[in-house]
Amino acid sequence: MSTKEMKQNSEQKEKRRLFDETGKRLLREIRPLRGWILLSALLCLILIGCAVAAPELLGALVDRLYAWVQAPAAGLARSLLPGLGLLLGIYALQAAVTYGNSYLLNNVVSRYFCAELRIRLSEKLRRLPVSYVDKTPAGDVIDRMMEDVGNMADSIYGIVEILLTGFLQMFVIAGILFFTDWRMAIPVVLLSPLSVFLSAKMATLGEKHWDKHFNLGGELTALAEEAYTNYPTTKAFNREAELQKKYDELSLRHQRNGIFGNFLSSIVQPVIIFVDALAYIAVAVLGGWLIVHRGLSIGTVVTVIFFARQLSAPLERIAFGLSFVQHVKSAAKRVFTLLDLPEEEDPAGCVEGPTRGRVEFRHADFSYDPEKPLIRDLSFTVEPGQKVAIVGPTGAGKTTIVNLLMRFYDIQKGQILIDGQDISQLSRAQTRRLFAMVLQDTWLFKGTVAENVGYGSPEVSREEIERACDLAYCDHFIRRLPQGYDTVISEDSTAVSSGQKQLLTIARALLADRSLLILDEATSNVDTRTELLIQKAMDRLMGGRTCFVIAHRLSTIVDADLILVLRDGRIVEQGTHKSLLEQKGFYYELFQSQYAI
């Protein structure tokens, strides 16, 4: 056997192991539903009782009618009507219990399984590190939470309802067939395992196609979400055709695997019908011979034929149930992969006493990729109330410092201290409560202007919101909106410009009134006049607060108490604007590149 074949076999074994583990995990997941499943089993027993009673009663009616044909007598209708009424009642009860069982399972699976699983996924995402969100397309996560969980719920309903009813009904009917006439029961029962074997084989063959189908579904959702989010850019660069081609290719692969999976699932029923036809032929031929040569009653043959027909129904149910098993395991594997992702550790430490705002980096090392070092041996100290600017070329590590301060990522070596306390010993929530933050990319949710500004401070009054907006120089344009502070906006709203959105996020940060303030390119989307207004507001409001400003536009940080100049993850220069210009070093080159003209 070649190395390639050995590798393929090893991969197949590993996939099979993971798939089997997924099945066991799925059984554990539905364990809380066992009470409802037991109730469903009781309803299934009623259905089976109806399924057993109907052919027996029908066979007795046929014998009575045949006896009347042999020896006509008065009162035939009177003797048949009670049996026909009872038969009608049995079928009515069967229909009602079938509906009740379906309603029960649908409601239970939807309420107790599907909703609960989505809640767990939502809570899991809250505990995952930011690195997972940075690396994973939003569409793929949404597809797992919505599409895959929905497929799991639908399939679990099918497995419980179909397999439970199918196996119970099959064993009961097989027993009754032997009790009725063991000679005609033998060909029916012998052919049944053949149906089950073929069904299981077909379902297993469809496994890999369902796996690919669900994975490609996640990629499709991610691509659609990305295309919609960047719709203006796509239109501006005339990339619609290329994007459509990429989507079509992905969609075709998704469709192809779905077709193969559905084909292998749907071919099961014709196979079972074919096997059932063989059973019918065997029962009909054998029954005819027994009537002629052994004096078997016609009613008994009719009863066996009806039971043989009813035995095909649970076999079809089992076949579909087996295809559902592969379906649900493929979806569940993606969901469980997300649920099993390692969570970031979060100590329960708290800040001791009021925060002064002294920040210190001690020999900090950090890299997103272990093979590509970024921050190396970074050390600096910021005193309370200082305005610190961090500058440098793209990729120097400016935004990374903010990520480390906010504990979106943790350093691999060294320490970061706030007021002498190592932030790695604090809870992430506690650390982030120390900071107010304005990012380069604005984020607004669908809600009123007042709700967006008060997002980080839910207890504040309308007066405090309006005062923060006034200090951030956005009160004037808010009052010109159709409903003022009650105007509904969102991230993609055209009611406010990009610069105005940035001003709203700045007002949000000011309203939070935290001890430390981070401005990551906060004025990048603001015109020069508005930038000057914001600088005045910041100068007035940053008194007593430690402020970190990250900016490419050096004009915004000329009055900073300390400027840290980063290059390749290291501080190459630090000082005030004036002292750095006098050094005529790297900062001087940056400044000259922007303002030499």
Largest sheet: 6 strands, mixed
Please identify which CATH superfamily of the largest domain we are dealing with. ABC transporter type 1, transmembrane domain
From the coordinates shown, what is the CATH architecture of the largest domain? Up-down Bundle
Report the oligomer. Answer: single chain
Global outline: elongated
Number of helical runs? 20
Share of residues in strands: 5-15%
Tally of domains: 2
| Low-confidence spans | none
N- and C-termini, Cα separation:
71 Å
Commentary on this structure:
- α2 (34-70) runs antiparallel to α11 and α5 runs antiparallel to α6.
- With 597 residues, the chain is an alpha/beta fold.
- Strands 6-9-10-3-11-12 form a 6-stranded mixed β-sheet, with helices on both faces.
- The longest helix has 52 residues, at 76-127.
- It folds into 2 domains: 23-339, ABC transporter transmembrane region fold; 359-595, Rossmann fold (3-Layer(aba) Sandwich), CATH 3.40.50.
- It is 66% helix and 10% strand.
Keywords:
Rossmann fold; alpha/beta; 66% helix; 597 residues; 10% strand; four-stranded antiparallel sheet; 20 helices; six-stranded mixed sheet; 2 domains; ABC transporter transmembrane region fold; elongated
